[in-house]
Amino acid sequence: MLKILKSIWSLFRTVVTIILVILIAVIVTQRVSNNQKAIAGFRVFNVITESMVPEYKVGDTILTKTVNPSELKIGDDITYMGKKDPFKGMIITHRIVKIEKQEDGKYLIQTKGLANDIEDPEINESQVYGKVIYKIKTISFLNGIIGNLFGMYFAIFIPFGIITFV
For the chain, what is the domain count? Predict the structure, then answer.
């Protein structure tokens, strides 16, 4: 019985380690590439404003997945790069309130923050980084640590040292 429990515990530790390594790889890749790269279509973002309260609070970490624009629907939360004032150059996560397919087959999307009174400027499908698929409260601290250079090195070298020398 004890041998079975040890095997289960070992398997659990291995799975958790793999998941953490993947999450760290996604976060580090994003930090190094200034959010321009995704790993297997996934990206991780930190919520920095209250525009989506109560769904997402400041400090929450969200996981997004790249999707085909035709799969998006009203009510989905998406993360995108703003190109028009007041969001120019900002990464925004807001809820879709309107989708319009153009004659050329491309999509125009209208979003709005849950806590905001007005809708955002329209965006095109090329601005969308991905659809929010999960809110990760438990690793918000990890994303915060990796957000600076010292923390990123810490997150890379400490696990590497543990794996190598333990």
Answer: 1
Which has the closest alpha carbon to 68: 105, 36, 39, 22? 105
| Integer Cα distance of 90 and 124 in angstroms | 15
- Phi then psi dihedrals of residue 89, to 5 deg: 80, 5
Is residue 146 packed enough to be buried (19+ CB in 10 Å), middle (13-18) or exposed (0-12)? buried
Determine the Cα–Cα distance for residues 81 and 89; give it in Å rounded to an integer. Answer: 6
Count of helices and strands (H, E) across the chain? 3, 7
Number of Cα atoms under 13 Å in the Cβ half of residue 40: 6
pLDDT digits (tens, 9 = 90+) for 118-130: 999 999 999 999 9
CATH (domain of 59): 2.10.109.10
Domain that holds residue 29: 2-165
* Minimum mean pLDDT range among 39-43, 47-51, 79-83, 112-116: 39-43
Radius of gyration of the chain (CA): 19
Residues 56, 79: Cα–Cα separation, whole Å: 13
